[in-house]
Amino acid sequence: MSKRCDVCDKGPQFGNNVSHAHNVTKRRWNPNLHKMRVNLKGSVKTLKVCTHCLKAGKVSKVL
Q: Band of the pLDDT at 42, cuts 50, 70, 90?
C-alpha cells in the first residue's frame, strides 16, 4: 500500500536518526493517513487522506 495522500499527494519524507555518539542510520517519516469514504464529485469513493487535508476541509466525509 502506498503511503501517499490521494488529495494533496503528501508522501513519506526521509532523513537520518542521529544518536548521541553521532551514529547515523536511515529513517523515514510517514504521513498520518486514514482510509475515508469521501464525497468526490457527487460519488462516494474510498480514499487515503492525510489528517492535514481532513482538518483543512479539503474533503467531506460520508457518514
A: confident
Report the distance separating Cα 19 and Cα 41, nearest Å. Answer: 48
Do residues 10 and 4 lie in contact, with contact meaning Cβ atoms separated by under 8 Å? yes
For residue 58, the one-letter residue type is K
42, HSE (Cβ side, Cα atoms, 13 Å): 0
Domains of the chain, each with CATH number or no CATH:
13-61 (2.30.170)
How confident is the model over 14-31, as pLDDT tens digits?
Answer: 999 999 999 999 999 999
Q: Is 21 left (phi over 0), alpha (psi -120 to 50) or beta?
A: alpha
